Amino acid sequence: MMQIALIAHDRKKDEMVNFAIAYEHVLKPHKLYATGTTGTRIMENTSLQVHRFMSGPLGGDQQIGALVAQNEMDLIIFLRDPLMAQPHEPDIIALLRLCDVQGIPVATNVATAELLVKSLERGDFAWRELVHKYKPGIEE
Protein backbone atom coordinates (compact mmCIF):
# COMPACT_ATOMS: atom_id res chain seq x y z
CA MET A 1 0.00 0.00 0.00
CA MET A 2 1.37 3.38 -1.04
CA GLN A 3 0.75 6.76 0.57
CA ILE A 4 -0.49 9.19 -2.09
CA ALA A 5 -1.24 12.91 -1.82
CA LEU A 6 -3.76 14.55 -4.13
CA ILE A 7 -3.59 18.34 -4.35
CA ALA A 8 -5.26 20.68 -6.85
CA HIS A 9 -5.43 24.42 -7.24
CA ASP A 10 -8.91 25.90 -7.51
CA ARG A 11 -9.11 25.93 -11.31
CA LYS A 12 -7.79 22.33 -11.40
CA LYS A 13 -10.20 20.77 -8.88
CA ASP A 14 -12.64 19.52 -11.53
CA GLU A 15 -9.71 17.95 -13.37
CA MET A 16 -8.59 16.22 -10.15
CA VAL A 17 -12.10 14.91 -9.47
CA ASN A 18 -12.31 13.53 -13.01
CA PHE A 19 -8.87 11.97 -12.58
CA ALA A 20 -9.92 10.33 -9.30
CA ILE A 21 -13.08 8.98 -10.92
CA ALA A 22 -11.13 7.59 -13.87
CA TYR A 23 -8.49 5.92 -11.69
CA GLU A 24 -10.60 5.09 -8.64
CA HIS A 25 -9.85 1.38 -9.08
CA VAL A 26 -6.10 2.07 -8.96
CA LEU A 27 -6.23 4.53 -6.06
CA LYS A 28 -8.65 2.57 -3.85
CA PRO A 29 -6.17 0.14 -2.20
CA HIS A 30 -3.83 2.98 -1.21
CA LYS A 31 -3.81 5.49 1.66
CA LEU A 32 -4.89 8.81 0.20
CA TYR A 33 -4.25 12.29 1.53
CA ALA A 34 -5.46 15.62 0.18
CA THR A 35 -5.74 19.26 1.01
CA GLY A 36 -9.14 20.44 2.28
CA THR A 37 -11.58 21.08 -0.54
CA THR A 38 -9.83 18.74 -2.96
CA GLY A 39 -10.26 15.83 -0.54
CA THR A 40 -13.90 16.68 0.09
CA ARG A 41 -14.69 16.89 -3.63
CA ILE A 42 -12.96 13.56 -4.32
CA MET A 43 -14.93 11.83 -1.54
CA GLU A 44 -18.20 13.37 -2.74
CA ASN A 45 -17.67 12.01 -6.26
CA THR A 46 -16.03 8.63 -5.60
CA SER A 47 -16.03 5.87 -3.00
CA LEU A 48 -12.44 6.76 -2.07
CA GLN A 49 -11.54 7.52 1.54
CA VAL A 50 -9.22 10.50 1.83
CA HIS A 51 -7.44 11.87 4.89
CA ARG A 52 -7.96 15.61 4.59
CA PHE A 53 -5.52 18.26 5.72
CA MET A 54 -6.17 22.01 5.79
CA SER A 55 -6.53 23.85 2.51
CA GLY A 56 -3.26 24.73 0.80
CA PRO A 57 -3.22 28.45 1.67
CA LEU A 58 -3.98 27.61 5.33
CA GLY A 59 -1.07 25.17 5.65
CA GLY A 60 -2.23 21.97 3.95
CA ASP A 61 0.75 21.95 1.60
CA GLN A 62 3.03 22.23 4.65
CA GLN A 63 1.24 19.37 6.41
CA ILE A 64 1.83 17.14 3.40
CA GLY A 65 5.37 18.50 3.23
CA ALA A 66 5.96 17.29 6.79
CA LEU A 67 5.14 13.73 5.68
CA VAL A 68 7.42 14.12 2.68
CA ALA A 69 10.25 15.38 4.90
CA GLN A 70 9.88 12.22 7.01
CA ASN A 71 9.81 10.12 3.82
CA GLU A 72 6.28 8.95 4.62
CA MET A 73 4.77 9.85 1.26
CA ASP A 74 5.22 7.71 -1.86
CA LEU A 75 3.62 9.72 -4.64
CA ILE A 76 2.17 13.20 -5.06
CA ILE A 77 -0.24 14.35 -7.71
CA PHE A 78 -0.35 18.14 -7.52
CA LEU A 79 -2.41 19.63 -10.31
CA ARG A 80 -1.03 23.16 -10.34
CA ASP A 81 -2.48 26.14 -12.12
CA PRO A 82 0.59 27.73 -13.78
CA LEU A 83 -1.44 30.68 -15.09
CA MET A 84 -2.70 31.91 -11.72
CA ALA A 85 -0.57 33.50 -9.00
CA GLN A 86 -0.84 31.61 -5.72
CA PRO A 87 -0.61 33.49 -2.41
CA HIS A 88 1.16 30.51 -0.82
CA GLU A 89 3.69 30.00 -3.64
CA PRO A 90 6.63 29.68 -1.18
CA ASP A 91 4.86 26.70 0.45
CA ILE A 92 4.34 25.10 -2.97
CA ILE A 93 7.99 25.54 -3.91
CA ALA A 94 9.04 24.13 -0.52
CA LEU A 95 6.85 21.05 -1.05
CA LEU A 96 8.28 20.42 -4.51
CA ARG A 97 11.82 20.93 -3.15
CA LEU A 98 11.20 18.35 -0.42
CA CYS A 99 9.94 15.90 -3.05
CA ASP A 100 13.21 16.36 -4.93
CA VAL A 101 15.26 15.90 -1.74
CA GLN A 102 13.43 12.70 -0.77
CA GLY A 103 13.07 11.32 -4.31
CA ILE A 104 9.27 11.35 -4.18
CA PRO A 105 7.65 11.13 -7.64
CA VAL A 106 5.43 14.16 -8.21
CA ALA A 107 3.13 14.99 -11.12
CA THR A 108 2.04 18.58 -11.69
CA ASN A 109 -0.28 17.95 -14.63
CA VAL A 110 -2.73 15.25 -15.73
CA ALA A 111 -0.44 13.82 -18.42
CA THR A 112 2.30 13.04 -15.90
CA ALA A 113 -0.24 11.97 -13.28
CA GLU A 114 -1.61 9.36 -15.68
CA LEU A 115 1.89 8.01 -16.34
CA LEU A 116 2.56 7.68 -12.61
CA VAL A 117 -0.80 6.07 -11.85
CA LYS A 118 -0.44 3.58 -14.70
CA SER A 119 3.01 2.77 -13.34
CA LEU A 120 1.47 2.32 -9.89
CA GLU A 121 -1.15 -0.01 -11.39
CA ARG A 122 1.62 -2.15 -12.93
CA GLY A 123 3.41 -2.42 -9.59
CA ASP A 124 6.40 -0.33 -10.61
CA PHE A 125 6.54 1.40 -7.21
CA ALA A 126 7.84 -1.62 -5.29
CA TRP A 127 11.15 0.22 -4.90
CA ARG A 128 9.39 2.62 -2.49
CA GLU A 129 8.95 -0.26 -0.04
CA LEU A 130 12.73 -0.53 0.14
CA VAL A 131 12.95 3.17 0.87
CA HIS A 132 10.60 2.69 3.82
CA LYS A 133 12.86 -0.02 5.25
CA TYR A 134 15.94 2.14 4.97
CA LYS A 135 15.32 5.76 5.97
CA PRO A 136 18.70 7.45 6.14
CA GLY A 137 19.02 10.53 8.33
CA ILE A 138 20.38 13.76 7.05
CA GLU A 139 24.03 14.17 7.89
CA GLU A 140 25.13 17.56 9.03
Automatic annotation (TrEMBL):
Catalytic activity: dihydroxyacetone phosphate = methylglyoxal + phosphate
Keyword terms: Lyase
Pfam family name, one: MGS
EC id: 4.2.3.3
SMART domains noted in UniProt: MGS
Gene Ontology molecular function: any one: methylglyoxal synthase activity
Superkingdom of the organism of origin: Bacteria
Positions annotated as active site in the UniProt record: D61
Membrane spanning stretches: none
Keyword field contains Lyase: yes
Binding positions for substrate per the UniProt entry: H9, K13, T35, G36, T37, T38, S55, G56, H88
An annotated GO BP: methylglyoxal biosynthetic process
Gene Ontology annotations for the cellular component aspect, listed alphabetically: cytosol
Function comment: Catalyzes the formation of methylglyoxal from dihydroxyacetone phosphate.
PANTHER family the UniProt entry points to: METHYLGLYOXAL SYNTHASE (PTHR30492:SF0)
Family the UniProt entry places it in: Belongs to the methylglyoxal synthase family.
Protein's UniProt name: Methylglyoxal synthase
Annotated organism of origin: Cohnella lubricantis
